[in-house]
Specification:
The complex is a heterodimer.
Chain A (H helix, E strand, L loop, with lengths): L11 H18 L13 E6 L5 H12 L3 E6 L11 H9 L5 E6 L4 H8 L3 E7 L5 H15 L6 E5 L6 H12 L3 E5 L15 E3 L10 E4 L15 H8 L11 E3 L12 H4 L6 H21 L23
Helix pairs in contact in A: 1-5, 1-9, 2-9, 5-6, 5-9
Chain B lengths: L2 E5 L1 H18 L6 E6 L2 H17 L5 E4 L32 E9 L3 H11 L6 E9 L11 E5 L7 E5 L1 H4 L3 E5 L9
Parallel strand pairs in B: 2-3, 2-4, 4-5, 5-6
Antiparallel strand pairs in B: 1-8, 7-8
Helix pairs in contact in B: 1-2
The chains are: A alpha/beta, B alpha/beta.
C-alpha cells in the first residue's frame, strides 16, 4: 500500500492487518520506553489546513514514537496565509524528501490530488466531507477490542451525517467488517440516496434500543452555511443521546470534539459505557500502524528514500 | 526439493537438554537468569528451555518473548519478507541485575540478534546478555557469537535451514534444503 486515501480502497484483510499491527504497538505503549527505531532517519510531514486536536497530535506522536523526524505545519501561521497554493506548498515540503505527508484539508479529494504531486506516501487525515480513514480504523479497532468482532453488530450513527466525513468512512468500514449500520438524524442532515452505501436510514431515534453501539456525530456548525435545523436546542430535544435514551447494554462512541449538551448529554459522555477515551488512546496506536504499513509494511511500496533531489524545488520557502 | 534431515525429534530434545545444562553450569547464580525467545520459533524453543532449566535449577525463572519487526535494519531498504503473523513482545519482569539468555532457532548473519538486543534494551538494562541458538549456520555479517550452540551446520548461502517445531509445524526436526528459486533464505 503506497497511500491511505480512503477506507473504500481497503479490503477487509488489509483493515485487519493494520489493526493487528496496532495491537503490537499497544504493547510498545505499555513499556517505559515507548519508542521504537523503525522509521529512524525518515521524515514525516503533517500538514493541517483545518483545526484538529486529536488527529494532528496523535499522528505527530505516532511519527515520533516510530523515531521519524517530524515537520508539523498548520495552515494558520504558515505561508498558506500569504496565499501559497496547495500545490506549491506540497512542492515546497516535498523538497525535504519526506517519506510520508499526512494532510487534512477542507476540500474533498485534496489528499488524492496531493498523492499525484509528491513522491511521498500520502495519508488522508480528513478531506472535506469526503473521508477520514484513520478515524474509521481506530473506531473499528476500539470496537474489535471490546466486542471481539463486528460481525452482525448493530451500529447506529446518529446526527449530522451530511457534513460528516467520519460518518462516510465509518459506514464503509463498519459494513466491510460485517456490522449492520443505521444512519439516524433529521432529514435535512441525511444525504439523499445514502442507502446505496449499504445501510438503513431512520429520521428519528425510534428503534435505537435495537442498537448495540450508538455512534454520535458532532454538529458541524462551521460547515453549516444555511439552517439545517431550527435550533441546536430543538435538535437536542429530538436527537441528543442522553442516559434516558441510552440503555446500559449499549456502547457509546463519538469522534470528538463533543458539543456537550448538544449531540450528547454530559452524563452520557462520562458514563462507563462511553468509549470516547478509549477511542483517543486507540488513535495513537492505529496511526502508528498506518505509518508502519505505508512506510515499512510488507508489500512492494516503492522505497521513497531514493527520490532525493528529483523533485522540483519551488521558489520561495515559508518564512 | 532435496531435503536432508540433520536433527530428528529425539536429537532435538537431547540438544535442548544439553543447552539447558550448559546454561545452568555457566550461571551458578541461577536465580538471576531469565529466558527470552525471539519470535517465532525462538520463542517456542525458549519455552522448552525454560521448562528444562526449571527442572535443573528448581526455580521458576522469568520468561519472555520478543518481536523484532520494529527493530529490523532493512526497513524501507527493501520490502521485508512478508510477515503475515503479527506478534507482540512480552517481557513483564524487571531486567536489571538479570542475566538474560536470548534464544533463537538459527544464527545466520547476526542481524536478528542485533535487533533483539536493541529491543531488549528498550525494556531495561540487563546485567548480562547471553545467546543460545539451536543451529549456527555461519555467514556472520556482524561481530556476534553464540554462547550456547545446539549444532554447527556448515552451509552454503544458497541453502536453507528449516527448523520445524511441534507447536507450530506439527513435527520436531531440522533439515537443510537445496536452493529453490522461490525460497527466502534465512
Amino acid at each position: 500500500m503506497k497511500h491511505l486515501l480512503s477506507i473504500e480502497q481497503l479490503s477487509r484483510e488489509e483493515i485487519e492487518a493494520i489493526l493487528d499491527r496496532a495491537e503490537s504497538f499497544a504493547e510498545v505503549g505499555r513499556r517505559d520506553i515507548k519508542k521504537v527505531p523503525t522509521l529512524r532517519g525518515r521524515t514525516v510531514v503533517s500538514l493541517f489546513y483545518e483545526s484538529s486536536t486529536r488527529t494532528s497530535s496523535s499522528f505527530d506522536l505516532a511519527a515520533k514514537r516510530l523515531s521519524a523526524d517530524l515537520v508539523s505545519v498548520k495552515a494558520a501561521g504558515s505561508s498558506v496565509e500569504k496565499g501559497e497554493s496547495l500545490k506549491d506548498t506540497i512542492a515546497t515540503l516535498s523538497a525535504y524528501d519526506p517519506a510520508a505527508i499526512v494532510i487534512r484539508h477542507p476540500y474533498a479529494g485534496a489528499a488524492q490530488m496531493v498523492a499525484g504531486w509528491t513522491a511521498a506516501s500520502v495519508v488522508n487525515a480528513g478531506d472535506g466531507k469526503h473521508e477520514h480513514p484513520s478515524q474509521a480504523l481506530l473506531d473499528v479497532y476500539t470496537l474489535r477490542r471490546r466486542l471481539g468482532s463486528l460481525e452482525g453488530v448493530r451500529i447506529w450513527i446518529v446526527g449530522d451525517v451530511l457534513h460528516s466525513r467520519v460518518a462516510r468512512s465509518n459506514l464503509i468500514a463498519f459494513a466491510k467488517m460485517g456490522a449492520e449500520v443505521t444512519l439516524c438524524g433529521p432529514p435535512t442532515l441525511i444525504p439523499r440516496g445514502i442507502e446505496a452505501l449499504g445501510c438503513d436510514v431512520s429520521y428519528s431515534l425510534d428503534g435505537i434500543e435495537e442498537a448495540d453501539v450508538v455512534y454520535a456525530l458532532r454538529m458541524q456548525k462551521e460547515r453549516m452555511s444555511e439552517s439545517f435545523v431550527p435550533s441546536l436546542r430543538e435538535y437536542a430535544a429530538s436527537f441528543q443521546i442522553d442516559s434516558r435514551r441510552l440503555n446500559p447494554r449499549q456502547l457509546l462512541m463519538h469522534p470528538g470534539p463533543v458539543n456537550r449538551g448538544v449531540e450528547l448529554s454530559g452524563e452520557a459522555i462520562d458514563s462507563p459505557q462511553s468509549l470516547i477515551a478509549e477511542q483517543v488512546a486507540a488513535g495513537l496506536v492505529v496511526r502508528m500502524a498506518i505509518l508502519y504499513e505505508l512506510l515499512a509494511g510488507g508489500d512492494a511500496s516503492a522505497p521513497s528514500a531514493e527520490g532525493e533531489g528529483s523533485r522540483p524545488t519551488p521558489i520561495g520557502t515559508p518564512a | 526439493m532435496n531435503e536432508k534431515v540433520v536433527l530428528e525429534h529425539d536429537d532435538l530434545k537431547r540438544t535442548l537438554r544439553r543447552i539447558a545444562h550448559e546454561i545452568a553450569e555457566g550461571n551458578p547464580d541461577s536465580e538471576r537468569l531469565a529466558v527470552v525467545g525471539i519470535h517465532t520459533r525462538g520463542a517456542v524453543l525458549a519455552r522448552r528451555l525454560h521448562v528444562f532449566l526449571g527442572e535443573l535449577t528448581g526455580s521458576d525463572l522469568p520468561f519472555g518473548d520478543l518481536d523484532i519487526s520494529f527493530y529490523r535494519d532493512d526497513v524501507g531498504a527493501k520490502a521485508p519478507a512478508s510477515q503475515p503473523v503479527v506478534h507482540s513482545s512480552h517481557i513483564d519482569f524487571d531486567l536489571s541485575e538479570r542475566t538474560v539468555v536470548l534464544v533463537d532457532d538459527v544464527l545466520y548473519t547476526g542481524r536478528t540478534v542485533r535487533a533483539a538486543i536493541e529491543a531488549l534494551f528498550d525494556y531495561g538494562r540487563p546485567q548480562r546478555v547471553q545467546l543460545a541458538v539451536l543451529c549456527d549456520r555461519g555467514h556472520r555479517e556482524l561481530p556476534i557469537r553464540p554462547d550456547y550452540v545446539g549444532k554447527n551446520l556448515p552451509t552454503a548461502r544458497e541453502e536453507r535451514v528449516n527448523v520445524r517445531l511441534e507447536e507450530i509445524d506439527g513435527t520436531d526436526e531440522v533439515t537443510i534444503s537445496e536452493p529453490s528459486t522461490m525460497e527466502v533464505s534465512r
